[in-house]
Fold this sequence. Notes:
- This protein is 12% helix and 50% strand.
- By secondary structure, it is mainly beta.
- It comes from Aequorivita viscosa.
- This is YD repeat-containing protein.
Amino acid sequence: MKRILFLFTASLLFLACSNDDNNGSENPQELKIKKYTSISFDANGTPNGEMVEYFFDENGKKTKDHIIDAFYDYFWEYAYNDFGQITRKAHNHLNYPVDFVENYYYDQNSRPWVVFRDWDADGIDMDSISFSYQPQQINVQWFTPTQERTEFYYNTTDVLTAVKHIGDLGIVSDEIITYDSTLNITNLNLTTDYFNLEINHTYEYDVKINPFYEEFHNYPFNTYYYGYLFDHSLFISPSNATKITRTGTDTSENYVLEITFQYNDSDYPISSETKKDGVLFSRATYEYY
């Protein structure tokens, strides 16, 4: 009888351990991104000197950007309030003092209210951007110098479906957003009345984890309140884009980006290689806490 009880108990322990093992594989460890680095290459496969570095704290908040492009070497530095919302962005070039500062203020409902820009970091605000709210719509209005405006439209579940850009001289552009069942953006279609141009971006994805998405999803205006959504393809979907196809009215600017990832055991990317029309374009690495 004792032997039967022992075998029964051992079987239960074995099943419990097996279930723990299975749960571990089904629920990979959640990681926070620490640093992202991307290096660009010329047509000969040689680094061309352009680089992007993003630095993050242990909560996944971006603390600093370092960007080297064909013209500049510059930084963005970020500060946040206790609610995780951006309060300050400071922009400066290498070996120069701060170029300008953006200070963010929020209303009593913790919604973005106004952004003041101090162009010379001298304490004098020279530009301002205000946020206003309507049902299923957020409006972002620039007051100087060109009175530009961006309107964000949402469906009944608060998913962004369209962005209208009203630029200088009244030029209007509409960005229509299409999702799949997992909220990956599969298509961004931009039309503008400026020479009746149209630009279309289609996206394909892996089934892994995008380490940037959660922060972007929870605090979109920490990252983006002007410009075009397709400029932020690294952040906009819960999975990682493996192919981006751009087509448009000006066919000379069409291209296909194909991104190949390597992943860790928790399904997060640790490196990637991007080819543009079949030619090496960039390589990136991901570091985690």
